[in-house]
Structures are given as C-alpha cells and as structure tokens.
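Hi Prof. W.,

I finally got the DUF72 domain-containing protein prediction working! I wasn't sure whether to trim anything, so I left the full sequence exactly as given:
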Amino acid sequence: MRLHVGCAMWTLASWRGRLIPHPLPPGERLRAYASWCDAVEGNTTFYATPSVETVASWAEQTSPDFRFLPKLPKAVTHEHRLTGGDEEMRAFLAAMEPLGPRAHALWVQLPASFGPGDLGALAAFLRRLPRSHRPAVEVRHRAFFEDDRAGRMLERVLAAADAEWVPFDTVTMFVAPPTSDAERDAWLRKPRLPRRSRALTDRPIVRYLGRDDVDRTVEGWRHWVDVTAAWLREGRSPTVFVHTPDNADALTLARRFHDEVRAVVPEVEPLPEPVPAEPPTLF
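And this is what came out:
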C-alpha cells in the first residue's frame, strides 16, 4: 500500500545545508530530494520544455516508482487554450519520454477563464493525448465548484479519458489574514476556491497549501489525512503535494503528513531515510 508525497520543487535555497546537503552539483540535487519525498510537481515545464538530456538526468536520479507531475506548457494550456500548440505538445511529450513510468500523470492546469463553455476543447484535447499518458486536470473556474451541473459535465469529460481532477486546496491560506511577505504574496496570487475531495480514478492527486506557521498547516490538513486514509483503504494510490507560502518547511511537512496517514493506516509503506544534510563527524 503506497502513499506518495512531495513538494512543489526539489531545490530551494532555504533547504541547502539545513535539510539537503550543500553544495551539490545540479545533477545530484533531485537525488537528495528523493531521499525525503517520492513525488514532485513539475512546475518548470510550464515555462520551458527541458531538453531530453535534462529529463534523462531526472530519471537517473530517481527510482522507477518516483512520481513526477510534469505541467503542460503554457503555450498549450493558456495561450492556445488546448485548441492549438501541437508543435509545443509534441516537443513536450518527446522530452518527457525518458521519465517512463515516473511520469505519473500529465498535469493540465487550466486558466481561471477556462469555464464550462470550453469543455468541448478539453474533451477533444484529452482524446488526442496518447493513451500511454494519464492526464490530471486542474481547473480554476468557480462554476465547476459552485454549479452542480458544470461539475458533473466536467467529471463526465474527465471520466471518458480516465483523467483525474486535481484539487488545489487553498482554504487554510484564506482562513485568516496573511502574517508574512510570502503569505501576502500567496494571498494575492493563489486561487480562492471551495475545497473538493472526490476522487475520479484509482490514483487521486491533491495539492494542499498551508501557512508559514507549521501548526496552522497541520491543523488545515486534518481533512486530507482522513480522506487519504479512506482512499488507501479503497485500494487507491494517492499522491499529496504539500505547499506553504515560503516552502521553507515543505520537505519536513510532507513527511509529517505521510507519518500522520501511516499512523491511521499502518500498512502504508514507509518513506526512505533522508540523506543527512551534513556529513557525520568523528565525535
């Protein structure tokens, strides 16, 4: 029984020397991260498609059961709104090929303006995707969360493609006013949407945003501990990504989330032991 957890990135300045060994060459940073977590979001591919050689390095640094969630290029999802960008999509799929089974799902993050009237474009796009790739779709239009008919229509489109609906839970972020610069930035930029926790497939994916205060973050994820435990008991294989506005403690928080679920469902496999940030001393 496997629960995968991860963060929004695999390298962050505030982790270096404190959680992750430093200095490390670029070709070793993901390997160090993978000793902490067994999944990671692929946000950078939204802005630029990496070379095949770079992606091959990612694969070399991780085990076959590590999970990547590479995000489709901005040109495909936001500029062409799924009705063009074929060249960019072909280049993206070719670049991701070295990941093999590590490419857990292709992350189709859609703009907030992509609403129920655009579902035809989404359905056509999902039909064109190679069956070797499983899509995971994140929507941000409020109608999908507040209008039952719109939500059911989206679910039908996703079910036809065996695609998952990825919730981005920001409820904890907006419970109380921000108290740090990073929280103030998140307050302005992150979507304010109702929480959604219904899985459509056997591999649900959750993105959870807490606060820079650890206790608030942990309190806010209680719902997801219960939901994740229930999914595991149903035979599903979930992946949960833990964010905070500054992400300074995201690595330790992701492991803590895993520990809390494992306390409820002891059959869940443990995570690996992290690589020490500092070499052992003689005394």
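The domain at 4-264 is CATH 3.20.20.410 (TIM Barrel). Does that look reasonable to you?

Thanks,
D.
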